[in-house]
Design brief:
Organism: Labilibaculum filiforme
Order of helices and strands: HHHHEEEHEHEEHHHHHH
Radius of gyration: 20 Å
Helix content: 40-55%
InterPro entries: Sce7726-like (IPR047729)
Protein name: Sce7726 family protein
Oligomer: single chain
Largest sheet: 6 strands, mixed
Length: 246
């Protein structure tokens, strides 16, 4: 069975009857006709997580690593022309780029360059099938994780990026954030007035402030959120009972 089709067809905002139709068509059965929305969504979630090797499985495992720790975390954070899959911020910034079994590595070289310019510690989280090729593509300061069943394997620890660039870090902040933290939206002027360490530390504070509320919501509601819906709830902060209750 093509569980990738099930994963692609699922939508957190689908109505109960739409989920019933989806499961009936996929599994060729009517046994879900009396299930409520949460039960239907959980059926999709369980089937996808058991049989599919897509990126949402690795993203969920990453989030689970940090949900009880004193970090602020975020999904899909823009960095130059790339977008890191998962970022955690506290005393340092840690980016994680996910490459699942079904992902290609075509953009990885550009992605690792972008993240290395702006984040302190950077790791690629992969399906083990990519290991040999990934090692060829990434610089030595990058970490590599993969999972064997549910066990995290740290193949290589991330080292502090030697490529940190203060000018590039400023581009991660919008004008409102630049004005708030530096009193100016002129990047050239900020670079004259502040050293690299000040800019790096300010970026961390800005990112923590930007994502703290959304990540705190995920932490508070973790046990009520299905893994397949995690990024939706991070983005929207809608109460799970509202989504699953209709």
């Amino acid at each position: 069975m093509d569980y990738s089709a099930l994963a692609r067809s699922y939508n957190t905002l689908s109505y109960t009857n739409q989920l019933r139709d989806l499961l009936a068509a996929f599994f060729q059965t009517d046994k879900y006709k009396d299930c409520n929305k949460f039960e239907l969504a959980k059926t999709v979630n369980d089937a996808v997580f058991k049989n599919y090797d897509g990126e949402q499985i690795l993203k969920y495992r990453l989030a689970k690593e940090f949900v009880t720790k004193k970090y602020v975390a975020a999904f899909e954070v823009k960095a130059k022309t790339s977008r890191t899959d998962f970022l955690v911020i506290n005393g340092d910034t840690k980016s994680f780029e996910v490459k699942s079994k079904i992902d290609t590595l075509n953009r990885l070289k550009k992605q690792v360059e972008d993240y290395g310019d702006v984040f302190e510690y950077n790791t690629v989280v992969i399906d083990k099938t990519h290991l040999e090729k990934v090692i060829e593509l990434i610089p030595d300061y990058y970490g590599v994780w993969y999972y064997e069943k549910l066990k995290k394997v740290v193949y290589r620890e991330a080292k502090y990026s030697p490529k940190i660039n203060a000018a590039e870090q400023l581009t991660l902040m919008n004008k409102k954030e630049l004005q708030k933290y530096f009193g100016s939206t002129n990047n050239e002027q900020i670079l004259k007035n502040c050293n690299a360490a000040q800019i790096n530390n300010t970026l961390k504070q800005a990112l923590k402030d930007r994502y703290d509320k959304r990540w705190s919501f995920v932490q508070t509601n973790w046990n009520s959120i299905l893994p397949i819906d995690l990024q939706f709830f991070f983005n929207t902060n809608v109460k799970p009972e509202i989504i699953y209750g209709n």
